[in-house]
Design a protein that fits this description.
This protein is an alpha+beta fold and 383 residues long. The protein is 28% helix and 28% strand. The chain has twelve helices and 21 strands. The strands form four sheets. Strands 1, 14, 15, 16, 17, 18, 19, 20 and 21 form a nine-stranded antiparallel beta sheet that branches. Strands 2, 3, 6, 8, 9, 10, 11 and 12 form an eight-stranded antiparallel beta sheet that branches. Helix 6 packs antiparallel against helix 7, helix 7 packs antiparallel against helix 8 and helix 9 crosses helix 10.
């Protein structure tokens, strides 16, 4: 078992205080957006044996388990994070596996540098993800019913939004959503900035259901993503609740602290709320234009005390243990590798005492027992 030393990414949207508060350290004054736990080449966790990527590369079957290597290859197939949103993240979608493979191969053939700001595909993998709230957590997830979206836009009383309202009423759901998102992202920037300014003033005045969009506009004035965001479901998670984001589902996280797990990929296509590259044609190819229920997940408890967040993919499996004072120890030994993350209390994992924000990597087959009083998230795979 290896204690992990993890990198904190200072993205501009990060909260300056949430991760330091979890770790019990003084804030630096800079944004701290994500703490990465895993073997992603962008910021692999460090151990006493080297980086986790180096440890796994040296003996994949020993570290990951033979069945996991046969199923996913000689690499850790997931990335675990603590995410602290102090401002909205970009409105985005992720490709499915076939789209990612095709997009990556195409950009490789065209010789686009992997670090180019206009590149869409950093790797050939898909990026399904699960976010589980540690605090109250706001996000946008999936398209609203077009009639509901039309009513929300119409309620602003902004004349330049009327064509979008009419389109949402005039066509079947998928066609209506595609036409309106395309029109928003293709509009004249100066005219759209004026529309966003009018919509922002109305959102601020009306409050209630419009309040999240007023806040988004405060961070991204004039951005067409403010209007695009109003096509999506607004979701407020309570601690312990989660969202699963599959391929093609537009989403954005707005604020709060959460545990996030995803397939080990960095493929993102942005729709707005960002100064970064927005490839409208490729985005429109990837987005699933269908109304969806956000589908808030709550964990399913087993008799052994493990609370599992069920998802339809195998690259990751996230669960948690809420350990009461004086409770029995739990044996977590399994034939695949796992990362254990403490988010509350004090927990013993093997020889290590874990406090909030601390984590360990457990190689396949390694005896793993947890005890104490606190909350532990367990990340592994399904084989």
């Amino acid at each position: 078992m290896d204690r992990l030393d993890n990198t904190i990414r200072p993205y501009a949207w990060g909260s300056p205080t949430a991760i330091p508060h979890l770790l019990g350290v003084e804030p630096t004054g800079e944004p701290q957006a994500e703490m990465w736990m895993g073997a992603h080449p962008g910021a692999p966790s460090r151990t006493a044996r080297g980086t986790l990527a180096e440890v796994i590369d040296a003996d994949p079957e020993r570290e990951l388990g033979a069945r996991a290597v046969a199923r996913f290859g000689p690499h850790l197939p997931f990335l675990l994070k603590i995410l602290a949103a102090g401002a909205p993240l970009s409105l985005q979608v992720h490709p499915d596996l076939k789209q990612a493979q095709e997009g990556y191969a195409d950009e490789e053939r065209r010789g686009i540098p992997v670090d180019a700001p206009y590149r869409n595909y950093k790797d050939a993998n898909h990026k399904p993800e699960l976010v589980c709230a540690l605090t109250e957590f706001d996000g946008l997830c999936g398209f609203r019913d077009p009639v509901q979206a039309a009513d929300l836009l119409d309620g602003l009383g902004v004349d330049s939004l009327k064509p979008y309202v009419d389109l949402l009423h005039a066509h079947p759901a998928e066609e209506a959503l595609r036409e309106v998102l395309t029109a928003i992202l293709s509009a004249d920037p100066e005219e759209m900035a004026h529309t966003v300014a009018e919509a922002t003033a109305a959102c601020t005045r009306l409050g209630g259901a419009y309040a999240p969009y007023a806040d988004i506009a405060h961070h991204y004035p004039g951005d067409p993503g403010v209007i695009a965001a109003m096509l999506l479901n607004h979701v407020r998670l309570q601690p312990g609740e989660a969202l699963y984001l599959g391929a093609g589902i537009p989403h954005a996280y707005l604020n709060g602290l959460a545990v996030e797990i995803m397939a080990n990929s960095d493929n993102v296509l942005r729709c707005g709320l960002t100064p970064k590259h927005v490839d409208v044609p490729e985005l429109l190819r990837i987005v699933r234009f269908e109304p969806t229920d956000p589908g808030v997940l709550r964990p399913e408890a087993s008799p052994e005390g493990e609370e599992v967040y069920e998802t339809p993919i195998d690259e990751f499996r996230l669960s948690r243990y809420v350990l009461p004072e004086g409770g029995a120890a739990h044996d977590l030994t399994r034939d695949t590798s796992q990362i254990l993350l403490c988010t509350a209390g004090t927990v013993r994992a093997g020889e290590y005492e874990l406090r909030p924000g601390q984590s360990v990597f457990v190689p396949a087959g390694e005896r793993a027992q947890i005890s104490g009083a606190g909350t532990v998230f367990r990340a592994t795979v399904i084989v």
